[in-house]
Amino acid sequence: GEDATFTITGTVGATVTYDIGAGNVTTVLTSGTSVITVAGATANQTMNISLVDDGTCSDVLALTSTVVVNPLPIASVVNNGPICSGDDALFTITGTVGATVTYDIGAGNVTTVLAGGTSIITVAGATANQTMNISLVDDGTCSDVLALTSSVVVNPLPIASVVNNGPICSGDDALFTITGTVGATVTYNLGVGNVTTVLTGGTSIISVSGATSNQTMNITLVDDGTCSDVLALTSTVLVNPLPSIYAGVDAAICEGDNVTLTANNPSNANIVWNNGVIDNTPFSPIVTNTYTVTATDANGCSNTDDVTITVNPNPIVLFSGNVLSGCEPLEVVFANLTVGNSVNCSWDYGDGFTGTGCNTVSHIYASNGSYDVTLSVVDDNGCTSSLTYTDYITVHEQAIANFEADEFENDLLDSEVSFTNTSTSADSYSWDFGDGSPSNFDTNPDHIFPSDEPASYAVTLIAYTAFGCNDTITKVISIEDVLIFYVPNTFTPDNDELNQRFIPVFTSGYDPYDYHLTIFNRWGEVVFESYDSSFGWDGTYHGKIAQDGTYTWKIDFKETMTDKRHSKTGHVNVIR
Predict the structure, then answer these.
(1) Residue 449 and residue 430: Cα distance in Å, rounded?
(2) In DSSP terms, which residues pair with 308 in a beta bridge?
(3) 227 vs 44, 187, 222, 235, CA distance in Å?
(4) Res. 560: pLDDT tops 90
C-alpha cells in the first residue's frame, strides 16, 4: 500500500527507457536524476532499464531493480452473540500470525497477540451488550489502522414468578398464577411430572380442579426461546377440608303429613336450610321438593347435602253405585273409581254392615230407608282418604203379593171362585185370571172361569207401590172335568135302526185315547172288545148273531182330571 520509488541517476539530460510491467516508458534525467513512483504498491515492483540516450549517443542496458513490497498485517473479528445475560461474551480475532491487535471493549485500548493467528477475548458473565472496536494491527514489519467493530447482543434472561389463591376449601379449584416474560415457556410440576405452559400475554393461570388436598407447584425452568433460566420456585395452596354435613335419607309422606328435617352436623358448623326449613322443626310440605342444608365452618368453607321429600297425593276417592234407589231387598254393586292403585278399600254401607274390596263390591240392603255410604282407600303409597255420600242409597218398602181362593180346585159344574187378597205394603192391584178375560183391579174379586172344558188357569196378582216396588204372585186355579157316563143295560140288535148297538155313553171326564171295552158271555169268553169309545157291540160274535141273554161288560179307562184309571163292570141284556 506504500509507494514504490525507483531513483534513476545518469547522464544529465539523458533519456532512459524503462519498463515496470506495463510496457516501455521514458524519463529524462533532468539534473542527472529521475524518481519514478509506483503509488500504493501492493506487490513487488521490478523496473527493467533497457536504453539510455543523451541525444548524441545511446546505450542498450539490462538494468533491473526490484522493490520488495511486504504485505500489511490483517485482522478480523467475530463473536458468539447473541447470548443470554450472564453468559460469557466471546470475541474471536483472527489475522496475521503473531500480529499485535489493539482493541477497546469500553475500558480503554488493550492489545492481544494473534498467536497462531487467533486470539479469543472473553467478557465473563456479560449482562449487557458488549462491543469491541479494533483500531490497529502490527506484525512488527508493517501495521494497519483498522476500524473494526463487533457487538455481542446480550439478551436478558426470561423471568417467572407465581402466586396462588390459597387457602381454599376442599373441592374448590386451586389456582396458580404464573407471571413473567411474555411468550416464555415455564416448566412446572404439581406432583405428576413436569408440565409446560406458555405465558401468553405474560401470564398463565394453572387450575387444579376440585382440589381436595394441599397443592404444591414447583417451577424449575423458564425459557423464552432465546434464553432460559433454571428456577427453584415453590408455591403451595392450602386446602381446608369441608365441614361434614348429612341431611338425612330421602323420605315419602302423604299430603298433609308433617316432616322434621334434622341435619347431622358433627363439625358443629353453622347450618342453614333452604326453602324456609328450620332444623329439627316439623313442617308440612305441599309438593315434592329437594331440601338443601348448607354448613359453613370457621374457615368459610361450606358443604351441602340434599334430602328429597316426596309428597304423595292422597287418593281422590270416587265411587258409584249401579242403582241408587230401589225396592227391598236392594242389591247395589259399588264400583271403586278412585284414581291410582288402591291397595286397601273399606266400605261402610250405612246399614250396620261393612265390606272390603278395591274393585267392585256388592251389598244387599234388606230394609227400607236412606243410607250414607263411605269408602275409605289406602293407596300403594300408604296414603289414606275417604269419601261419604249422604243418603246415597234409598230403599223403598217392597210389596208382598199374596192371595187365597175359596177353592183352588173346582169343576165345570161350579167354576166361580172368590179371591181374598192378603198382600201387604201395596197401594193398588191388578188381577190376571189367565183365561183371556180383562184385567181386574178390585182388591178382592170374584171370577167365573170358563165351564166348557176343563183347564188350569194361572191367576196372577200384581201388587203395586208408588215407587214401583211391585210384587207378583201366581197361583193355579183348576177347573176339573166331571166324570159323567152312562152304560145301558139292554139293547135290541134287531135291525130296526133303534138301539142297534151297545155303546157306553161318556159325556165328560174320560180320556178317549185310553179306553177299552170288553164283552164276555156267560162262559167268560170275549165276544167283543173295542178301543174306540164311539164304536159299540152290534150283538154278533164271529160274524154271527149272538144268543139273546145277559152278557158281562168291562170298561177300562183313564179320567182326564188325574192319571187315575177306572175299571167298571156290569151286565147288558141282548133282546131281539
Answers:
(1) 17
(2) 290
(3) 52, 14, 8, 24
(4) no
